[in-house]
Amino acid sequence: VYIMDYQCDLMLPEGDCMVLDTYIAPKMRGRGLASFLVTESSREMQSRGFVRRLSFVRADNAPMLRVAEKAGYRRLGQVDFFIILRRKYFRPDPLVLIEARGTAGM
User: Fold this and answer.
1) Considering the entire predicted model, what is its pTM?
2) Region 9-38 average pLDDT
3) What integer pLDDT is reported at residue 22 of this predicted model?
4) What DSSP string describes 46-86?
5) Tens-digit pLDDT profile for residues 80-92
6) Which residues contact 53 (CB under 8 A, 6 or more apart)?
7) What's the rounded Cα separation, in Å, for the pair 80 and 82?
8) How far is 64 from 87, CA to CA, in rounded Å?
9) Taking the CB of residue 57, how many other CB atoms lie within 10 A of it?
10) What gap in Å lies between CA 87 and CA 79, rounded to an integer?
11) Which of 3, 18, 22, 95 has its CA 20 to 30 A from that of 69?
């Protein structure tokens, strides 16, 4: 997968997939849409044969982290910077890397 924001390829092991962005418009928040998207996207990814689902969530996005954890995702760690072509780029807003395996998240 080529990520335009970082101008690099992201290579995932076979059976892994990644949700890069999920956004709910402010006026639509609080209606359960994030839970619906997490659940339905997890079902779809599993139906396509993916075993592990990964995503990044901004560390300051407590509502989305709660949705993900209720759906069975677990935190793997925090990303404060990326290294691209041997250059370190610090993020102004750290990310939490989360994962779900099997039927978690469905």
Assistant:
1) 0.76
2) 89
3) 84
4) HHTT--EEEEEEETT-HHHHHHHHHTT-EEEEEEEEEEETT
5) 877 777 788 777 8
6) 16, 17, 18, 19, 41, 42, 45, 73, 99, 100, 101, 105
7) 7
8) 30
9) 21
10) 15
11) 3
Residue burial 69-80, b: 16+ Cβ < 10 Å; e: rest: eebbbeeeeeee
Nearest to 96 by CA among 105, 87, 67, 84: 67
Left, alpha or beta for 29 (phi > 0: left; psi -120 to 50: alpha)?
A: beta
- Residue matched to tokens 């989305």: 64
Query: Distance between CA 16 and CA 93 in Å, rounded?
Result: 25
CB 60 within 8 A of CB 93: yes
pLDDT at 5 > cutoff 80: no
